[in-house]
Specification:
Blueprint: E1 5-7, E2 10-12, H1 24-28, E3 31-33, E4 36-41, E5 45-49, H2 51-64, H3 73-87, E6 92-100, E7 114-121, H4 131-134, E8 136-140, H5 160-173, E9 178-182, E10 188-191, E11 195-200, E12 203-206, H6 217-228, E13 232-235, H7 241-244, E14 248-253, E15 257-264, E16 267-268, H8 276-291, E17 299-301
Parallel strand pairs: 8-9, 8-15, 12-13
Antiparallel strand pairs: 1-2, 1-7, 3-6, 4-5, 4-6, 5-17, 6-7, 9-10, 11-12, 11-14, 14-15, 15-16
The structure holds ligand PPE.
Length: 309
């Protein structure tokens, strides 16, 4: 895990990428971040999945919180590539983070320095090694997603994950792998770190972006893949009980990739294992990120270390 970290414009040794305890983000959650995967592909070597879309979302998240990142998208892209190349990792998880650092304390963050970090580490299957094939057991969380006009859900902000962590702890301590959160109106929203899809009679359903979900980049990829495989995909309000009578359910996310759900609240979903639609989508997705077949132009190859400035 101890690879050099890009910190405010340059790569520094892992141990040196530290912050002061009076940094604004520690006190008030004032950070935004991304999660991106670099895959070792058969045909293209190491390649990053949808790098531009992730960095664009980072810049959007920062803008929502009035943080000015002192680097352009192109500079962040180059910095990401440099951090990966210097890590020596063929496959990794990439964590860009922008946060309010030192300045005055007090809620007003406008005078606090905006700091930029890119870290990488090896990260395997997010919801357990068996999960991609066997599926996971989840519960509907007693915690809802935030109400509209409270915390902006289009921003992937550190503070949003206090809500996510409550749902995750609630699930894990109850013996489940993950929690599904409902919107304030009781409609299905998403997992603590994943979007959610439901399959019934061959049609896919997922929550609309207005329902306090993070607009997931894997979600977007799955919508595209599903439509190109001939499935209908609808974004609509889904009542809680639709979970229990679904043919298939699965999570999507950078870390979780496409993870089937085999039970919710002890209701068995479909046959209690990965269903055919989930499997077809996993195959299409892994064909891109593992084999490197890239008809959508979603992969950015990582230059080898010698070629990086
Ligand atoms: N919803 C939430 C709340 C979320 O955190 C993620 C990603 C998604 C949906 C899926 O978005 P996307 O990765 O763009 O498809 N969660 C990240 C953080 C996980 C963590 O534990 O940290 C991730 O998957 O990288």
């Amino acid at each position: 895990m101890e690879h050099p970290i890009w910190f405010n414009g340059k790569l520094v040794p892992y141990e040196e990428a530290t912050v002061h305890v009076l940094s604004h983000a520690l006190h008030y959650g004032s950070s935004v971040f991304e999660g991106i995967r670099c895959y070792k592909t058969e045909q293209k070597g190491s390649a990053v999945f949808r790098l531009r879309e992730h960095l664009r979302r980072l810049i959007d998240s920062a803008k929502i919180y009035r943080m000015e990142i002192p680097y352009s998208l192109e500079e962040l892209e180059a910095a990401t590539m440099e951090t990966i190349a210097r890590s020596g990792l063929e496959a990794c998880y990439i964590r860009p983070l922008v946060f309010r650092g030192m300045g005055s304390l007090g809620v007003n963050p406008l005078k606090n320095r905006v700091e930029t970090v890119i870290a990488v580490w090896a990260w395997g299957a997010y919801l357990g090694a068996e999960a991609l094939e066997q599926g996971v057991d989840v519960k509907v969380s007693s915690w809802n997603r935030m109400a509209p006009n409270t915390f902006p859900s289009l921003a992937k902000a550190g503070g949003n994950y206090l809500n996510a962590a409550l749902a995750k702890m609630d699930a894990v301590l109850g013996g489940y792998t993950e929690g599904i959160m409902l919107s304030v109106d009781g409609f299905i929203a998403e997992g603590s770190g994943e979007n959610l899809f439901l399959v019934r009679d061959g049609t896919l359903y997922t929550a609309p972006v207005g329902l306090a979900i993070l607009p997931g980049i894997t979600r977007d990829a799955v919508v595209t893949l599903a439509r190109d495989l001939g499935y209908t995909v609808e974004e609509k309000l889904i009542p809680r009980e639709a979970l229990y009578i679904a043919d298939e359910l699965f999570f999507t996310g950078t870390a979780a990739e496409i993870t089937p759900i085999r039970s919710v609240d002890h209701y068995t979903i479909g046959e209690g294992r990965r269903g055919p639609v989930t499997k077809a989508l996993q195959e299409a997705f892994f064909d891109i990120v593992h084999r490197g077949n890239d008809p959508y132009g979603w992969l950015t190859p990582v230059p080898v270390a010698e070629n990086v400035a």
